[in-house]
Amino acid sequence: MKKTDWLREKEILKKEKHKLVIEKEILNDQLNASQKQVHALEQSQQVLKNEKAGLTHENTKLKTEKTELTEKIKALATERDKLIASHQEKSDLDLHNRRLASANEDLKRQNRKLEEENIALKERVDGLKEQLSKPQKPQ
Asked: For bias kind Basic and acidic residues, which ranges apply (predicted)?
């Protein structure tokens, strides 16, 4: 091989080496960027895992609260039904009491009427006794 060929080849190899060095730098930059992305993704993944754990905990609390509220609603519904029944019973008793009061007033009126009739009858009896006790004139 001649010196000129060798120099030419050396020059070609230098250029190729230079290209390879540049390519290596580009690839290193890309690798660094990819590693940063991986790191950022890992951090994001950890944040999401933490958020998921928090949301799962919150979901569990909400389910428990929902169960408790459902039980309270059932208890309140039962209490409401009892109050409605009690109110109906009270209304029925009030109506019954009004009827009894009305019947009582009717009985009082009848009693007064009978007392008046009794007084009138006593007066009549007294009058008849008086008439009977007077000597009667012969006819």
From this structure: 105-132
From residue 85, give the alpha-carbon distance in Å to each of 22, 38, 73, 94, 99: 91, 68, 18, 14, 21
Mean pLDDT by 10 residues, the chain (139 residues): 86 96 98 98 98 98 98 98 96 96 97 97 93 74
Q: Which two tokens stand for residue 12?
A: 């070609």
**DSSP symbols for 64-107:** HHHHHHHHHHHHHHHHHHHHHHHHHHHHHHHHHHHHHHHHHHHH
**What whole-number distance in Å separates Cα of residue 82 and Cα of residue 89?**
10
